[in-house]
Structure formats: C-alpha cells, structure tokens
Design brief:
Chain A has 414 residues and is α/β, with parallel strands linked by helices. Chain A has 13 helices and 16 strands. In chain A, strand 1, helix 2 and strand 2 form a beta-alpha-beta unit. The longest helix of chain A has 17 residues. Classes of the chains: A alpha/beta (414), B mainly alpha (349).
C-alpha cells in the first residue's frame, strides 16, 4: 500500500514536471502574465508608494478591458518600506517562488540598486524605475529600460527658460548633495556655458537641513534673480518660506519632483504661486501654451480615460488623484505597449526587441524611444528625454509655459 | 544533577556530551541547509546570520555589562564602508579588509566607551544615539566614501574563490558567525565576562573589589562595536550597494529590540531574538497570503488601518508580537526556553 502511494506520487511529479507550461517563458501562462513591483507603503518614503498603487489600478483597468492578447496581467506588489534588504528579499521570493515575467517601476535608488544585478544576471526585463538616477543607464543594461527623464534635462530647460525667455542675468542653484542635486548642477552649468554665463552661487542643501537662513543669506548676497531648486519638496517649502521672510524673492524654478502643484501649494501654504516647475507629463495636450490646466480635471483624453476607468473603479476610496499615483500609469505604459506589440507568442527576448522598437511612443508622459542595445551608448536605454515647463497658479492649477522640450544627455565626467 | 564542583567545570564551553551531540547536529544541519532549502531561504539565512552577529555583540554590552547603545547602526556603517573602501582603494583582500574595518569600528567603540564612564541610563542612550546619527552624516560628507550617492561593492573574492551566489555567501557568513559566537561564549566565561557582569550588577562594588571599570567598560564597547563592524562588512555584500541613509536610527532600534526580545544576558536569547525578528521583518509581508486569515486581515486593514487601501497590517502585527513578548515574558524568548527546560526536567511533576 505504502509503496503504491510512492509510485503514484512519483508519476504525478514526473507528469507535472514534463507537461504544463514547459514551453512558456517564466511568468507567462496561457491566461496570465506575472509582473512584479516594489514600493514603500509604510515608513518615511510611504508617499511615493502611490506609484505602485497607480500601476495596480492601471493593470486592473487593462484586465477589465480584456487583458493583453487573452492574458490577464497579474500584478504582484509588495511593501519594502524603502529598506533595500527587504526589497531584495521580496524580489528574490517573488522571482524564485512565483516567477515574474518582468518588473516594472520600483521606487528608490538604493532599493533598486540592491536588486539591479540580480535581475540583470537573470536577464529579467525591468522597465521604468521611479527615479531619474544616472545609475540606470550608466552603464546601460540590456534588460533595464529607463523611462523617467534624467534631472539633467530639467536643469537645462529651466536654465534656458530663465535666461532666454525671462531675461534673467544671475542664476543660482540650491542643490541636494547627492546624485539628484549634482545632475542639476551639471545641467545648469552646461546650458549657462552655451549662453556664455556662469552660476552666480551654488549652495548645497543637506537632506537634514531644517534652518535655511544660511542658504538664503548666501543666495541673497549673490543678488541672484533666478534660483533653481534641486532639493526635496520639504526643503523647497522651507527655502521659499525663509526667502519670503528674509525678503528675498527671486524667480524660483523647481524640478519634476516638485511638479505636483496642489500638493506643493498645501505644503508651502500658498507660497508656491508663481514658481516655475518642470514636468514630465501627466496629460499635457499638444500645443496648449498659455492654457491653464490641472491634474484634477485632465484635458488629455488618455488621462481622462485613466481617471474614469482605473482611478474611479479600482483605487481605494481615500486614494489621492495626484502626480505620484499617475506616475504609476506613465512608468508602466511602455511595458504595456511592448506587451501588446509582442502578440500572443510572448518571451522576454521578444519583449526586449519590441521595447527597443519603441520610437516616439507617447502615453501620458513625453516621447519615449529606445534603440538596439549598445553597451557604449546610454541613450539606447534612456527612454524619455523631454520635459515641459509650467507655472503654479493661485488655485494649484498649472499654466503651461512651453511645449515639450528635448534635452541633451551629458556624459558623466568622473 | 547539574551541580558545578570546580572552576573548570564552570568555564568549559560545552557542559555535557548531550550538548556536544546537539551542537554537532546543528553544524550538520547548517552545512546541508543551502542544499535542502530554496535559494530565497538561503538569502534569508544570510540576513539572519548577520543580525545574529550584531545582536550577540550588542548583548555583550547591554545584557552582560549593563550599558546601552542606540548607535549600533553607526558601527555597522563603519564596518560596511570600511570594508568596501579598503577593498576598492587599498586593494586588500576581503577578509583582511573586513578585519581592519571591524577594528576601526572597535576603536570608535572604545572612544564612545569613554564618555560612557560618566553616563548612565537615559544619558548614555542619548550619547550613543548622537554617535549613530553623526557617523552617517559624516560619511555623507566624505566624497571618497561616495558621499550621499553611495558606494558599490566590488566583486567578492575570498581566498581566490569568487563568491557571487547566495549559497557561496552562506558558506562564508555561517563560519564567521559560528566563530564569533564561540568567541562571545568563551568571553563571558572568563575573567572579562565576570567583570562585565560585576559592572552590570553593581559597578561601585565591582570597583571596590578591584575590577578596573575604565578598562572593562570601554572594552565592552569596543568588543560590541567589533561585532557590529564585522556584520556591517558582510551586510555590504548582501546589498552590494550602500548609502548613508541605510544606517538610520530605526536600524539601531531594531538591533536593540532583537536583543531585548531575545533575552538579555544569555547566549541563546539574542540568537533567538535575531532569528525571530529578522524573520518576521522579512516574512510578515506574506501574512496576507495565508489562506482565510490573510483575506480577513486584508479586509480588516483596508477598512480600519490604512488610508490608501493597502494592507499595512504586517507592521501592526509586528508591533503586537513585540508587545506581547515583553508583556508576558519579561525575560524574552530565553525565558520561555528556561521554563520549557525546567518543565521537562521535573516532568511529570
């Protein structure tokens, strides 16, 4: 009796191992495509966790509309609390026990870098990390597709606008002392050099700085008439607030990370009015310069669709319809588009090929293009390279100042 | 029964053949572990082993010597940065770099031990807290250490063997962990260990009978920091990328929590604490996939605890487990072990 149970067990194991989805790619079955994502839902970085929830609603919308070539997207997202050790644990577990076909987005530079090698060694595609870090494309990786535009571009467009449109003569910058801030510094210097100018002042801001008086003093002394802000939203609020108190009111210009005007208005208590900020998308309508628009009532059809079919139906009741949530759509769009182009016969290599074939793809963000893999050329994996500028209005709406502006990639000088 | 008759019985590492037997079984199990369990669990084991090293070291300080530290993430950071820096800039082999980095951490521990001579309780907690917070700020300012942009770990080569899998790393971490555990166990059984305990129980009395407080308090800090340094150096290769933000206050508190929940002043306690809490920390994320209960917890969390509809119940449960352990078992997990042992020894009475 006992023996026969063993034999049955053995036969079943062999049958299970040889049939089923043996021919399919990992993470793909007849009816499902498994996609993984991490994002902090707790801890200090929790506000950025909205990206993962946005992607979740987006995938649910796609599934409700019939999925992709008869397959549903199964979205596995977990909370890593912005702790890279946990990111790595979660990624390994999902990858090894369930098997993800690809990974999408993923908040944070440190969490992403902790798993980058792991994913790349296994040739698992990863699309759209949610930070504009140079680490994703320097050096470029065959299976890592960047979507989020580099902050280098923000700095170029902001500086160019300040100099050539607003006629500002003295440009200064307050920058965070890390990858993000340094990109701002490089981009601004690059554009000023083209115009035969120099930064009149640079003041580094530490993440932990709460007293901004020394920074404002320095900026005021330089008599800057436009100041670029490459710092966190909290530090932007403190800098503008301290500036106001010390009667230093230059034209403030901020990056895509501070482009969520309703949010910025509330944390600066209204002082954000008149600030110019770069934006990487979220529903800009072609050629609408001078128009006033807001994310609350989107004008772009695609954005309207997302609001009605994804946000209204699948987001939690208290979910805020804001930039971070919508970034969850934008960062996943290239993946979904490539999955559509792959057709029914889906493999990772085919996905990579289709992604490489994306030329001027536009969803709710800017143009996204990739090129066949070239280990020497970061541009082949850079994705979006354009941003536009908007000005914050009194009610948190945005006035569109420019059309999409193409930016230049500046090689890193070590 | 277990009456100790002379000094040598007290200091021996294994008190009976039974213990040696079980220890051998444990070694055998650890040796086979990566072949029995899936790769993910090997990663988890590495993570747990690193926490065990820190917590056993911290226990020498907190449990045996009665000092407190809220700054161990700082020593951990020194170990991590030191190892990577010495490998990539001084081109030292991994083990040498790890040892030197841990010694640097130990030296900083010694320095931190000096103010500890005059500080006690909450004041000492604040002083060590200050150290932990300062060190990451300092590292963030040093461009040679990558500043706030962080550092990538070089390829790991130990004794000519490249190590690039979790399994390979396991066979590096586990021997180091066992070695450090044996050393700690040995230390507590010697003159030094007894001096630590004497300082904890009554430092003035200890001084009057000739225990050199200056020496042993600073030594406790140095040894404890050494352990954190070794663990930090290994941790750098678990993540392969480090930045100052990682070594935050929460990490220090987590180390201390593991020590206290495990049970102060014992060897098994901190090990159990480190295993349980590291495991919960990584695994509670999956609580929602437990059949039936998971579904219910998810609903509960979405209706009452979470603003955004994401179930964050794992952190509530994590907190509850901590509260219950401390509430019902003030001696920590070690207390449960003592009671179980007593029960079986006197069974059936």
């Amino acid at each position: 009796m006992k023996q026969s149970i063993w034999i049955i067990f053995l036969v079943m194991t062999i049958v299970a191992a040889t049939t089923g989805n043996g021919i399919c790619e990992e993470g793909v079955t007849d009816t499902e495509i498994h996609i993984g994502q991490w994002g902090p839902q707790t801890g200090p970085a929790a506000p950025w966790g909205a990206v993962a929830r946005g992607t979740d609603a987006y995938f649910k919308m796609i599934n409700a509309n019939g999925g992709i070539h008869g397959r549903k997207l199964v979205h596995h997202f977990f909370d890593d609390a912005y702790n890279p050790a946990k990111t790595k644990a979660g990624v390994k577990q999902l990858q090894e026990q369930i098997g993800m076909f690809a990974w999408v987005s993923g908040v944070g530079t440190a969490p992403g870098l902790a798993v980058k090698d792991y994913l790349m060694e296994r040739k698992i595609p990863w699309i759209g990390p949610s930070t504009g870090s140079r680490h994703w494309v320097e050096p470029p990786q065959k299976y890592l597709f960047n979507v989020y535009p580099l902050y280098l571009g923000d700095a170029q467009v902001l500086t160019d606008y300040a100099v050539n449109e607003l006629g500002k003569k003295k440009i200064a910058i307050a920058y965070q002392n890390d990858d993000y801030g340094k990109q701002g510094l490089e981009g601004a210097r690059f554009t000023l050099e083209k115009n035969g100018m120099e930064l009149v002042e640079t003041t580094p801001v530490a993440v932990t700085d709460t007293d901004m008086k020394p920074h404002i003093m320095k900026l005021k002394k330089s008599d800057a008439d436009a100041v670029l802000l490459f710092v966190t939203p909290g530090a932007v609020a403190r800098l503008i607030g301290t500036g106001k108190a010390m009667q230093f009111n230059p034209q403030w210009l901020s990056t895509t990370t501070c482009g969520d005007f309703p949010l910025m208005m509330s944390i600066t208590k209204g002082l954000y009015e008149g600030v110019i900020s770069a934006s990487f998308g979220m529903g800009k309508v072609e050629g609408n310069i001078g128009e006033v628009q807001g994310i609350i009532e989107p004008k772009l059809d695609l954005m309207k669709k997302y609001k009605e079919e994804a946000y209204a139906k699948f987001a939690a009741e208290d979910e805020r319809w804001g930039y971070t949530f919508c970034a969850g759509f934008g960062l996943a769009e290239p993946l979904v588009e490539a999955l559509r182009r792959c057709g029914r016969d889906l493999t990772r290599e085919k996905l990579v090929k289709e992604l490489e074939g994306l030329k001027n793809f536009r969803g709710i963000m800017g143009n996204i293009s990739y090129k066949p893999f070239d280990p020497e050329d970061p541009l082949c994996r850079l994705g979006q390279q354009e941003v536009y500028l908007q000005e914050c209005m009194a009610d948190g709406q945005s006035k569109i100042l420019t059309d999409w502006k193409e930016t230049e990639y500046i090689p890193k000088n070590e | 029964m277990e009456m100790k008759r002379d000094y040598y019985e007290d200091v021996e590492l294994f008190s009976s053949g039974v213990i040696i037997f079980w220890f051998a079984i444990l070694i055998g199990f650890l040796a086979l572990y990566p072949f029995v369990f899936k790769n993910y669990y090997v990663y988890v084991a590495n993570y747990i082993a690193i926490n065990i090293i820190v917590v056993v070291g911290l226990n020498l300080l907190v449990g045996y010597t009665g000092q407190i530290s809220l700054g161990h993430a700082g020593f951990f950071a020194v170990g991590a940065y030191g190892t990577i820096f010495l490998m990539s800039h001084a081109h030292l082999p991994f083990l040498a770099a790890l040892l030197i980095a841990a010694l640097i951490a130990a030296f900083l521990g010694f320095l931190l031990g000096l103010p500890a001579l005059r500080l006690e309780g909450p004041y000492l907690a604040i002083a060590t807290l200050g150290f932990g917070l300062t060190i990451t700020q300092v590292i963030g300012k040093i461009n040679l250490l990558g500043g706030r942009q962080g550092l990538h770990a070089p390829d790991l080569i130990v004794l000519g063997q490249p190590i690039d899998t979790d399994r390979g790393f396991y066979y590096l971490v586990i021997p180091i962990t066992l070695l450090l555990l044996l050393f700690a166990r040995n230390l507590t059984k010697t003159k030094v260990g007894r001096a630590f305990v004497a300082i904890r129980d009554a430092d003035i009395a200890a001084e009057t009978i000739g225990v050199n407080i200056l020496l042993y308090k600073t030594m406790a800090f140095a040894v404890s920091a050494f352990y954190a340094g070794v663990a930090g150096g290994l941790y750098a290769f678990v993540l392969r990328f480090i930045e100052p933000e990682l070594f935050n206050l929460f990490m220090s508190i987590m180390f201390l929590t593991m020590t206290v929940v495990g049970g102060l002043g014992s060897m098994m306690g901190p090990i159990a604490g480190a295993i349980l809490l590291s495991w919960l920390d990584l695994e509670l994320r999956n609580i929602l996939s437990i059949p039936y209960i998971g579904q219910w917890l998810q609903e509960l969390s979405k209706s009452y605890f979470s603003l955004t509809g994401v179930s964050n119940i794992q952190f509530i449960i994590f907190g509850l487990i901590l509260v219950f352990i401390i509430l019902f078992e003030p001696l920590g997990l070690y207390g449960i072990w003592i009671r179980t042992k007593k029960y079986w020894k006197t069974w059936p009475f």
